[in-house]
């Protein structure tokens, strides 16, 4: 009996002719036959059209329509057809009639003549393609050539074939991609294959599914098959590639440690050793992760990091010995080529490369033998499926692109007032500050230690965290939606919305807050799934670091409590000591910050006044409906209108998706029903609190940023649906929303780095180039040197003091003795000048009322400077000079 399997998706228009021509082919056979239509739940009604066509020909007994609603894909549809088929000969063909059903008798005859497999071939005598352009013929031939080492079949991508059912007995194959024939032919060596010629005709109805995704899926499929056929060769190539990447990381880490962290000051031997140690640890960790995830993924369950480190340590010793030997080679008395090479590169880099090359040979052999022991055969089943692979590829592309864009703009955009103020914090590190906890200061201190006092140095680590936030949101979306496409579009929201795309470039406390916020959620999931104390303690550590970033992190603590109370597994965990120990770890991490808070003028009250009332020194109190509307308008601006609507739809959809009791397991991987409260509570609490706060006082758009960490996750599903919806206008709407968000974000970034339009009211909180002002003040300082000493730089507020300190040559100390608001940290840094100390006072008022308090006697007026942007005056500053009055810098006497 012949069973013909036809996988379908959106092939309604081809149903009548397909059924007619297949039944006509059946009529010419001398044995019974059946047609299995395996449809992936086509939205165009393909299944119904097939049933109707079969009924019209009175063939319902030999035409079966199978509808699959899960785990979709062409190859999986064919595999499902194999399982349902009754015949001893199985045939596969496309539904678009590019495979002529009239060839089925010839394929069956070839099987009866002794062939195990009969392939409808375009590339044997008598076969061909009708009307194909040259480029398509080249692509098709090239695809066949790529697969030639796997099978002798000339038209391995045909997709039109028949085979004996017993060929599938004990055959381990992976139903993936769009070329099930390729999978089978490559795994059927030794079988007798006959190619039957036919002429391929393009479809006349419906839309072709050939595109970039199918081509990429074909390459993924080839990679798995090559790995299964030639495991050693491909494994060697993969290990070598990881090794080369490790060498690059090793060299980069060594360079950063040796030259930028100052280890060179210890000399080539000691400094080189310390730098090598650091670079070795970094490269070893990266290499192990890549080899476990890629080179030896089928054996990663048996991989041992400790053994890998042990093997690598032997290689490290070998490398160190070679390094020591090379750096002590004579240079001046050596060959001319050696001397030239040393002066071109540096003897340390040459020594490092020689050591790495020798050590990598050892690491390759030892790792393969002991760290990743071979167990079982490779079936290639661990490769991601095409849809997942495409999504992952776009994720990598988006993250890399976002990283590059942020580096470019972080280097070009001047620092904002607040960024220079945070940079001042990094020069006076403490456990806390009046405005925010200290995390941003420590990040800036580390970044400027690596890259110097530059805008990129200030923004380096927060920028890296900003990119990592996208990855964390992607993982959260995967965990909830169980769909890589939802994760991909959640990531798109992160990298395109102005709040995150622009805000991620700027060094500010929101970035580490968001990083630790999302990381804490993922670690909570892992702790609930594994039920290990170590996971809970790690979650507590990240929760504490989040609170060290910004105080609204406490909202996540509350949200996590409510979320844990919402599920049986969460309630069970609360009856164990694990989450309470995690809370204790968070408290331990933040203890120094709280001690600082309660010993520095009650700064907690300042935070509360800023969020719910008048901030220190601010007499303006907004509130009421107008303030709420302003808050909503701000959210619309920083998220964009369409994205905000999609986010609301996502929250409502998740809210209404109430799980049944069966969807709330108590062990294993968290179900979407269990994850649901961990998405809803953080978003709703944060939106509700700051939305309500806007009724009492002005609320800034960025204050609700943590809510979007999970709101984007909830919006990932609806946005993925929109992007793949059958209705074209919805797909175009989604594309427009993404393009609009990208355009706004890029415009703001480009316009900030390189002004495009002269705004009369350019936002004062935006980054701005104050170098001209700094140069003017530097000229005044040089011209007013008094008694051989440069004058003090005194400013009327912390913003001016900070931008001058950053932009002036030498980064001088600046003072702000009259600060009572956000810049109160200046009061802790200042000290009284010695009597007779000369100073400059930079103020944005021609007649400031504190001149008599600041100076002894009447100061001299030095001039005025206009800060302009494309010819529009943005700020005006005045300068005064005179002998400073010491009591003005004493807080206790003022």
Chain-wise SSE layout:
Elements: E1 2-8, H1 15-27, E2 33-39, H2 46-56, E3 63-67, H3 74-84, E4 89-92, H4 104-112, E5 117-121, E6 128-130, H5 134-147, E7 161-164, H6 180-186, E8 193-197, E9 199-201, H7 212-229, H8 231-260, H9 268-295, H10 305-327, H11 336-344, H12 347-371, H13 386-412, H14 417-427, H15 439-451, H16 455-481, H17 484-496, H18 498-501, H19 510-530, H20 533-547, H21 553-565, H22 568-574, H23 578-599, H24 603-612, H25 625-639, H26 641-656, H27 672-693, H28 705-723, H29 728-753, H30 771-783, E10 792-795, H31 798-807, E11 814-815, H32 825-829, E12 838-843, H33 851-854, E13 855-869, E14 872-884
Parallel strand pairs: 1-2, 1-4, 2-3, 5-8, 6-9, 10-11, 10-12
Antiparallel strand pairs: 4-7, 5-7, 12-14, 13-14
Report on this model:
The protein is an alpha/beta fold. It is 57% helix and 9% strand. It is built from 33 helices and 14 strands. The strands form 3 sheets. A 7-stranded mixed beta sheet has the order 3-2-1-4-7-5-8, with helices on both faces. Helix 16 packs antiparallel against helix 17 and helix 17 (484-496) packs parallel to helix 29 (728-753). The longest helix is centred in the first third of the chain and has 30 residues, at 231-260.
């Amino acid at each position: 009996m012949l069973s013909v399997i036809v996988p379908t998706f959106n092939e309604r228009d081809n149903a009548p002719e397909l059924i007619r021509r297949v039944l006509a082919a059946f009529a010419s056979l001398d044995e019974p036959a059946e047609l299995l239509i395996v449809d992936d739940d086509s939205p165009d009604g393909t299944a119904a059209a097939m049933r109707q066509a079969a009924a019209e020909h009175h063939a319902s007994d030999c035409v079966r329509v199978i509808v699959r609603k899960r785990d979709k894909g062409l190859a999986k549809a064919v595999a499902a057809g194999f399982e349902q088929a009754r015949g001893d000969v199985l045939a596969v063909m496309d539904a678009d009639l590019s495979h002529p059903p009239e060839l089925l008798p010839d394929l069956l005859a070839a099987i009866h003549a002794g062939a195990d497999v009969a392939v409808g071939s375009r590339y044997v005598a008598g076969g061909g393609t009708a009307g194909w352009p040259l480029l398509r013929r080249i692509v098709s031939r090239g695809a066949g050539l790529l697969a030639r080492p796997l099978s002798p079949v000339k038209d391995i991508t045909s997709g039109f074939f028949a085979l004996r059912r017993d060929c599938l007995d004990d055959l381990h194959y992976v139903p993936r991609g769009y070329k099930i024939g390729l999978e089978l032919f490559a795994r059927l060596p030794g079988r007798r294959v006959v190619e039957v010629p036919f002429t391929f005709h393009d479809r006349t109805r419906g839309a072709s599914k050939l595109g970039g995704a199918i081509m990429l899926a074909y390459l993924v499929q080839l990679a798995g098959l090559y790995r299964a056929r030639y495991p050693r060769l491909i494994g060697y190539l993969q290990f070598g590639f990881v090794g080369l990447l490790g060498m690059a990381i090793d060299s980069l880490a060594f360079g950063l440690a040796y030259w930028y962290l100052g280890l060179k000051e210890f000399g080539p031997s000691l400094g080189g050793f310390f730098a090598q140690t650091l670079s070795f640890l970094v490269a070893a960790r990266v290499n192990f992760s890549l080899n476990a995830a890629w080179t030896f993924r089928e054996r990663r369950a048996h991989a041992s990091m400790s053994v890998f480190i042990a093997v690598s340590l032997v290689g490290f010793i070998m490398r160190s010995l070679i390094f020591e030997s090379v750096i002590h080679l004579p240079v001046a008395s050596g060959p001319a080529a050696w001397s030239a090479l040393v002066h071109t590169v540096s003897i340390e880099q040459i020594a490092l490369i020689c050591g790495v090359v020798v050590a990598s040979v050892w690491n390759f052999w030892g790792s393969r033998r002991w760290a990743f022991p071979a167990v079982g055969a490779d079936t290639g089943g661990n490769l991601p499926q095409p849809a997942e692979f495409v999504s992952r590829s776009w994720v990598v592309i988006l993250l890399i692109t976002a990283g590059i864009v942020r580096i470019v703009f972080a280097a070009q955009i001047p620092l904002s007032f607040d960024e220079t103020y945070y940079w001042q914090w990094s020069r006076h590190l403490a456990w806390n500050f009046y405005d925010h906890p200290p995390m941003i200061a420590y990040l800036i201190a580390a970044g400027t230690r690596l890259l110097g006092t530059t805008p990129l140095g200030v923004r380096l680590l927060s920028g890296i965290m900003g990119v990592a936030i996208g990855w964390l949101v992607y993982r959260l979306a995967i965990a909830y939606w169980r769909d890589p496409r939802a994760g991909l579009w959640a990531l798109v929201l992160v990298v395109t919305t102005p709040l995150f795309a622009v805000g991620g470039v700027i060094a500010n406390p929101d970035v580490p807050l968001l990083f630790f916020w999302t990381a804490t959620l993922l670690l909570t999931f892992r702790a609930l799934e594994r039920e290990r104390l170590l996971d809970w303690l790690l979650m507590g550590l990240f929760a504490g670091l989040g609170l060290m970033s910004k105080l609204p992190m406490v909202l996540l603590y509350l949200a996590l409590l409510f979320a844990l109370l919402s599920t049986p597994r969460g309630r069970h965990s609360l009856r164990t000591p694990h989450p309470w120990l995690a809370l204790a770890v968070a408290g331990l991490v933040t203890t120094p910050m709280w001690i600082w808070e309660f010993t520095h003028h009650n700064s907690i009250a300042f935070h509360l006044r800023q969020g719910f009332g008048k901030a220190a020194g601010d007499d303006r109190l907004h509130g009421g409906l107008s303030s709420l509307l302003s808050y909503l308008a701000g959210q619309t601006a920083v998220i964009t209108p369409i994205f905000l609507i999609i986010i609301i739809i996502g929250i409502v959809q998740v809210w209404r998706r109430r799980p049944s009791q069966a969807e709330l397991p108590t062990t294993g991987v968290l179900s979407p029903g269990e994850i649901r409260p961990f998405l809803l509570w953080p978003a709703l609490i944060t939106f509700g609190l700051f939305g309500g706060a806007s009724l009492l006082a002005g609320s800034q758009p960025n204050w609700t940023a943590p809510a979007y960490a999970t709101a984007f996750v909830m919006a990932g599903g609806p946005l993925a649906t929109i992007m793949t919806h059958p209705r074209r206008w919805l797909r175009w709407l989604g594309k427009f929303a993404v393009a609009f968000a990208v355009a706004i974000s890029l415009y703001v970034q480009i316009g900030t780095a390189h002004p495009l339009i002269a705004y009369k009211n350019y936002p004062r909180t935006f980054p701005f180039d104050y170098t001209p002002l700094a140069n003017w003040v530097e000229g005044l300082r040089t011209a007013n040197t008094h008694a051989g000493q440069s004058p003090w730089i005194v400013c009327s507020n912390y913003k001016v003091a900070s931008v001058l300190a950053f932009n002036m040559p030498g980064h001088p100390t600046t003072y702000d003795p009259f600060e009572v608001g956000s810049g109160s940290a200046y009061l802790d840094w200042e000290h009284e000048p010695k009597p007779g100390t000369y100073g400059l006072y930079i103020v944005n008022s021609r007649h400031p009322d504190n001149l008599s308090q600041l100076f002894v006697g009447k100061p001299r007026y030095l001039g005025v400077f206009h800060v302009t942007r494309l010819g529009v005056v943005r700020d005006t500053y005045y300068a005064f000079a005179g002998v400073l009055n010491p009591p003005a810098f004493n807080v206790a006497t003022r």
